[in-house]
Amino acid sequence: MSTLPESASSSEPDDPSRSSAAKRTADSTAGAPVHQPKRDVLLIDSPQSWARNPADLFGAVLAIIGAVLVGLVAVYGRTTTFAVAADVRRATGGVLETVLSLPINALEGLLSFFLPLALLAEIVVRRRWRTLITAGIAAGVSVLLTNAALWAGDRWWPTSPLVDQLSDAVYQQSHIALVPYVAVVSALLAVSGSSKGSRVTRTGWWLLAVVLLLSVLQGNQTLTAALLTVLLGVLAGLLTRYIIGGEPERTTGAHLISMIRRAGIDVVTAVRIDDLTADDPLYAYDIVTSAPIGHTNMAGLEQIRQILATAPPDDEQASEAETLIRELESLTSPDDQWEINGLDAETFREDTRRRYPSTRSSLISRNYIATDTHGCAYHLKVLDADRQIMSVLDDLWARLTLRTTIRQTRRTTEAVAEHMALLAMRAEQIGLETPEFVSLARMESSIVLIEKTNQDPLLCDVLSEDVSDDDLDTLWDQIRRAHRAGMSHGHMHAKYVKKSDGGLQITSWHNGSVLSTDSTRQVDLAQTVAMLASIVGVDRAVDSLKRALPATIVATVAPFLQNTILPKPTRDAFSKKELQELHDALSEDIPEATNLQSVEFTRFSVKTIVTVIIGVVAIAILLGSLNFEDLRDALTDANPWWMLAAFLVGLGTYVGAAVALRAYTQERVPFGETLLVQVAASVVTLVAPAGIGPAALNLRFLQKKGVATTPAIATVSITQIAQFLVTVILLIILSLFTGDLGNLSLPSGSIMIAIGVIALIAFVIFAIKPIRQWLLGRIRPTLQQIWPRLVWLATNPGRILAGAGGAIFQSMAFVATFGMSLQAFGYELPLITLAITYLLSNSVGSVVPSPGGIGPVEAALTGGLVIAGIPSSVAFSTAVLYRLFTFWGRVPLGWVALQIAQKRNIV
Fold first, then answer.
1. How far apart are CA 521 and CA 566, in angstroms?
2. Given Cys at both, which of 50, 260, 575, 579 links 245, Cβ 3.0 to 4.6 Å?
3. d(Cα 210, Cα 204) in Å, to the nearest integer?
4. Burial classification of residue 176, based on how many CB atoms lie within 10 Å of its CB (0-12 exposed, 13-18 middle, 19 or more buried)
5. How far is it, in rounded angstroms, from Cα 213 to Cα 101?
6. pLDDT digits (tens, 9 = 90+) for 789-815
7. Are 229 and 186 in contact (CB under 8 A)?
8. Strand order in the sheet with 366-372
9. How far apart, in whole angstroms, are the C-alpha atoms of residue 316 and residue 301?
10. Nearest Cα to 503, choosing from 471, 538, 525?
């Protein structure tokens, strides 16, 4: 076996007869690759002569979105687009049309005739026959799509500016009837373009852009219509190529073997181990290769070969030059490849998969197990450009839906490969027991990363009784060591862990980060303990974590334990109940940790959606119910100082409500949080009948503070009943003070009849034994659970008085706000009369089940003031002003409070 340096240095360096070409050859070949003999390689793979590229579908979707946006601009921004083109033409004084008339005619001819021919010729020269068929179909589809758009526009939107502009543009572009060359050329460029690229395709896009720009400046078509035809052509091209399939942008066959050898592996077998479908049959190939081992400057060596061929050395150097030429030609000669008949490729593949269990990540396009001449086994991870779009979309979706980036992904294959190599080398540097990273190489549109593999089983295939506590401790030791070095994993599950003689070992860190945050490291702990719980059970998993970390840190893992951050294999192994058991077990040693706020990972949780719906409905109701003219008149005529006083005094109602709820709650609840919830109820009140919204929010708050559902319902019910009783008692007391109690008359006949019917129905229900038993059976459990709360209140009169005091304070604050709103218009009523008017009117208005009492409350308050002797115009303005301070004006304040409460996990 000879080497290029040895061959180049076979003569004496001081020989004066040596030619200058030979000297240059000796200098240039220093460090050249060792010439290798031909090697027979067995390749088990699924060849893909064509494939549907997800990037084509994604591009088609973007083209549709772009067409919609351009259509909106054409319809709603027509004046602007026309004005810009007109300004340019006017500024040039007509010179632009004259100067550009000749170039644009020539360019249009070049674009509409010669460019398609050039594209098709290039496809034929490259023998891309499937692409040729796809291009022809795409061109036809672009014509049909453009004319279908025109037909639909003429049929359903005949007066739309967009249809007029598109029609003019198609007429301008159609040198042949009904064939818009812009759409056709765009479709051809979209089909012929790829990451491999071509100079014709790149030049074609620039030429198309220049022609359209000149055409728009000349006024032959509008900018929006030109863009729309381009987008329709691109849509036709990409969609056609996706449906038919295109050439995969990946390295396969003999080129794959050359790429593996370039990475430094003298490979003898390479077996595909991915999960394949029925549409991906396996074949066995015998590949005879002499590709260089290691990275080689092939371009430089080809230049040397050409120098030696064109300027041969002297006779003394002839044999050396011929040897160099032969060796250089052997390095660049194509490899032989043919299919092997009689070898069961599927059986060979399954045997390899069983012998070398390996993790197959979704970030990796293809996985192979390779062996070299020394019998060493390697896991080959191939990244293909035609599948990188999936990682990009996955990363985009994660950034849109998650508040915290957990898994690290990159947008290009080069960035992904470099990131994975960095993580592998960093893991080895800090002493983690991971597979040895060997090398990486690139060829065409693919990159291969190579690491050693072994026959140790994956954790998902190991029985729980075969995993010892020492094995678990080894895994936690690796996690702690990585975290101390600032690394995180980000996607821990049982397929990323192997069981070896030395314990559990992590096989890959390529989803992780070398500059992790505290949150991502906590996520690692949560994912790992959940993974172990799914394998060895909750008790052993939690015990192993407690042996590795202090109890305080173990408890802080619980808030991170959510389905959102768990990998799918772990999530599928857990039910919601089992996950809650694991959550409770983590907090067992520190019961206070159960009150820790859960970490919000998702941006669009159910809570967020409900909050947005509440906000939208609230705004719709507010804008639909508020009479801005009446409000403006009321604010114009009112005294601003009394209005300010009314608003500030009205805020005291929150304090009264918070005092009442806290007094009737047996469990300890912070007053500040209780007050915040009452403020947040202002926005909920807008979308629910009076009293129901705040009650629901209070119930949610108590449940979040650890109060069981039934006692929480009892507390909220008692609070509502106490407020009602306080209102009735106040009315009776005030009526006694004014002597109006004796003036009360019996209700009208219709009301008496309604009361009688209700009483009769109640009597019938309780008279029929089956119905009575069913009803009591449904009510009794609730009453039995509520009864202890009532007994507790009976033994704590101080709490009853505090709750009553809070309710009275709340009512008095409402009355004071009502009185100050009246005073703002220069009118006043005696305190007792004012209180009776407010309490009666507000109670009557709240009976009608409308959102927030909108309408009935205003009408009742206005009527009450009129009965009390206030002019109707002033009464109505007072009602509007009062509702502004106690209802409409509180919506923004309640929205802010609700956001704060949700962020703090209070509701």
1. 13
2. 50
3. 10
4. exposed
5. 13
6. 777 777 788 888 888 888 888 888 888
7. yes
8. 336-339, 283-289, 39-45, 267-272, 366-372, 377-384, 446-452, 437-443
9. 22
10. 471
The DSSP-derived string for 564-584 is GGS-HHHHHT--HHHHHHHHH
Structure tokens at 15: 């020989």
User: Is residue 260 within 8 Å of 370, Cβ to Cβ?
Assistant: yes
Query: How does strand 267-272 pair with strand 39-45?
Result: parallel
Q: What is the residue type of 521?
A: R
Q: How many CA atoms lie less than 13 Å away from 897 in the CB half-sphere?
A: 20
CA nearest to 541, candidates 598, 485, 459, 601: 459
Q: Which residues of 323-334 are buried (b: 16+ CB within 10 A; e: fewer)?
A: bbbebbeebeee
Task: Find the helix or strand (DSSP H, E) in which 49 lies.
Answer: none
Q: Which pair of structure tokens corresponds to residue 95? A: 């010179």
121 exposed, middle or buried (CB, 10 Å; 0-12, 13-18, 19+)? exposed
* Helix H or strand E segment including 446: strand 446-452
Task: List, in order, residues 6 or more apart from 834 with CB less than 8 Å away.
Answer: 815, 818, 819, 822, 828, 868
The DSSP 8-state label assigned to residue 112 in this structure reads: I
pLDDT, tens digit, 9 for 90 and up, residues 62-120: 999 988 888 777 766 555 555 555 555 555 555 555 555 555 556 666 666 777 888 88
Q: Kindly provide the b/e burial profile for residues 780-818, where b requires at least 16 CB atoms within 10 angstroms of the residue's own CB.
A: eeeeeebeebeeebeeeeebeebbbebbbbbbbbbbbbb
Nearest to 65 by CA among 264, 269, 227, 298: 227
Tell which residue, 30, 25, 19, has the closest CA to residue 307: 25
Tens of pLDDT along 528-549? 999 999 888 888 988 899 888 8
Name the phi and psi angles at 340, rounded to 5.
Answer: -95, 120
Q: Which structure tokens are listed for 370?
A: 């390779």
Three-state secondary structure call for residue 159: coil
Q: Distances in Å between the alpha carbon of 687 and those of 675, 854, 884? A: 20, 10, 16
CB atoms within 10 A of CB 764: 10
Q: List Cβ<8 Å contacts ≥24 apart for 64-71.
A: 64/235, 66/227, 66/231, 67/228, 67/231, 67/232, 67/235, 70/224, 70/227, 70/228, 70/231, 71/162, 71/224, 71/228
Residue 673 has pLDDT above 80, yes or no: yes
Do the beta carbons of residue 555 and residue 590 sit within 8 Å? yes
Nearest to 854 by CA among 874, 884, 820: 884
